[in-house]
């Protein structure tokens, strides 16, 4: 076992929330911190990879929520870093729906199907909401009657529209805070340095770096946290390689999927209210598969960036995007799979996935299109440091769930996109959650310092009475006392001491 490293705060995870939390702490004078990151890089789910001659985003691709009254802080960071972006308009996708014989559905048919699907989804949500809040007097029986009246999507076009509505556009609680507060526009990052560049720029402000590389010894990569031993006195963190770290506090910014897995053992175990809340949050798996071609055979031009494949199996290679707007001449297509389909392709070889994707493309564009020369299939589900792509709270969910996930547990503070009440699932959600968690921790540190000072005075009074040194000022006395070796436990159990940790 390596020697024990001690510090004030350990931040577990160097994704956007871990980095933004650490930055706030460092700026507020808590420089005695360590960041433990399981992988060999910072960025987490903001991750680029070189593919087919350009840089593609395996995780977050868009800055979502731009053009509103308030400015999205991640958009601000992107602008300051000079990140290249291009406007994306999903809404056109519904007018480019192909059937299995390669025929485009007439736009009237597509628009009609779309309108019907939106109306019934809204009706269902309203009823669920009324049911949930007990208002409107709608009981479970009425809800099931309503479900019968709103038939399930059955035809390929209905299934395709259902997929884009529920796995993309309406996968969130309405009204969507991101669009309401920051605007409805979305910009795709198309920059060789990747979306992750904004994280490097953020990290550089408080971690020592040179020539674009972070060299600060407080950032420790390849450190997989496996155990958190927490008590009212402090926290001991053990990593997979046998290192031990001790700190007064921990900010845990790992994903909700990791919290749901058994990667990290808590001693003592997390209480029921915490584990139950963690289990209640759904995890979305969202997989962008990249395909490189020798030349393009798909339509380009205005309104053609996205297209849909209507198949009798819901979500089967449904949602496509070409990358000509982002990287003209790159000849790359992206197809997005979710949940069950994502897990299915992660479990098979890339060759099999390529064969399926080519079958779908030949259905849409004919037998003569060229084979893809390369494929990239990210695995967010089987990555034990992620276990999914992002949190997806049920459309109708109790705010207490997110509050309990976020609530600190003694000296452990929770962060990450899943702890953001308004912006969960987004990069800006992770960024703002990091700031929020760091602020809460700073407040707790301030209170703890106050409690300590009070306790020291409390302990000092009898001493002063004994020695008769009543001329000593309180400040002098307290600083003198700092040199005494008084066990911490004494403060913590004294009557003015820190309240019992909430365990
Ligand atoms: C495919 C995909 C597409 C997305 N698209 C968008 C988009 O277009 N726009 C958008 O705004 N958002 C998008 N998101 C969501 C966005 O990427 C996330 O919300 C955000 O990046 C989460 O940041 P985070 O810091 O909360 O978590 P993470 O980035 O997951 O950071 C947590 C870190 O903890 C580390 N870690 C895990 N376990 C341990 C351990 N035991 N010990 C030490 N370290 C550990 C991980 O390696 C990781 O680096 C997408 C995500 C995915 C996966």
From TrEMBL:
It holds the Pfam family Amino_oxidase. InterPro entries: Amino_oxidase, FAD/NAD-bd_sf, Flavin_amine_oxidase, Flavin_monoamine_oxidase. The keyword Manganese does not apply. Keywords: FAD, Flavoprotein, Oxidoreductase. Pathway: Amine and polyamine degradation; spermine degradation. GO terms for molecular function: flavin adenine dinucleotide binding; polyamine oxidase activity. Residues 16-441 form the Amine oxidase domain. Its cofactor is FAD. Belongs to the flavin monoamine oxidase family. The keyword Ribonucleoprotein does not apply. One of its GO terms (biological process) is polyamine catabolic process. FAD binds at residues 17, 37-38, 225. It comes from Vitis vinifera (Grape). This is Amine oxidase domain-containing protein.
